Amino acid sequence: MRANWSVAQDPLGCCEGARTERGVEETEKALEKPLDTPPPSALRTWNCGGLSNFTMSICKDLGYYFLGITETHGWNSDPHALYSARQPPWDKYSGCCIALSPRARRAVIHSGTVGRRIVFARLRGRPFNLFLICIYVPHNGRTEPAQVDTYCQLEELLETVPKRDAVILLGDLSSRLHRHAGNGGLVGRWCMHTRADRGGMKLENLMENHCLRAVSTNFQPAGRRATCTYINKTPTLVPSK
Fold first, then answer.
1. Residue 224: pLDDT above 70?
2. CA distance 146 to 93
3. Which pLDDT score, from 0 to 100, does residue 231 have?
4. Contact between 51 and 136 (Cβ < 8 Å)
């Protein structure tokens, strides 16, 4: 499946300032200004188990440049986020989106989707442009779609990325990576698993082909039982959400 590219100078409606006297000039300067390489804390991902106005309000409190949200269940009411294609009835748990900070929205060059489980955006950056991908890979054993089919779509999308762009892959990949996998340091010492499953082996092969690294596995968690970087303060949501 080919990636659907949607090119727009202002795809997320960031030109509201043009209504003021100096709005046009300020907006043009903002669009031309590249985005600095973000710190790791500005990159976040979350499987929300169903997106809503309530969960989206929680996301806005995180403080991020890029937030990859998976399992949106077709919710797409936020005009400032990029959404994947609407899912059919037989795949109601799919869907993903990319939420961007106001500055990141101004840096968008183009964006698009690959089916209902992959959404991407290319952003003007410094010293290189950023190619951001959010993906929700189905669990092993699913047939519509199969896990291998989604990875094939991701492989085809990565083939289209300009060679000088920095690729940032966010999402829920439903795969287990192998600790210390690969000779080039694909996976760090703080990976949770000692053996890779079938999806993990496919992912490791894809990472090696496209020079990707599991960056988060190179950092020690805050505590021995720490399994996530964000714990919701709302008691009505279980910790896994």
1. no
2. 14
3. 53
4. no
- Among candidate residues 165, 7, 127, 132, the one with its CA nearest the CA of residue 66: 132
Separation of alpha carbons 147 and 3, rounded Å: 18
- Between 80-84, 127-131, 207-211, 237-241, the lowest mean confidence (pLDDT) is in 237-241
CATH 3.60.10.10 fits 41-174, yes or no: yes
Tell me the pLDDT band of 24, cut-offs 50, 70 and 90. Answer: very low
Tens digits of residue pLDDT in 92-112:
778 889 988 888 889 999 999
Reported as a pLDDT band with limits 50, 70 and 90, residue 39 is low
Question: Tokens 């496919």 label which residue?
Answer: 202
Alpha-carbon distance of 181 to 62, in angstroms, equals 31
B/e letters for 117-155, b = 16+ CB within 10 Å, e = fewer, are bbbbbbbbbeeebbbbbbbbbbebeeeebebebbbebbe
Tokens of 204: 């490791």
Domain ranges in the chain are 41-174
User: Is pTM beyond 0.90 here?
Assistant: no
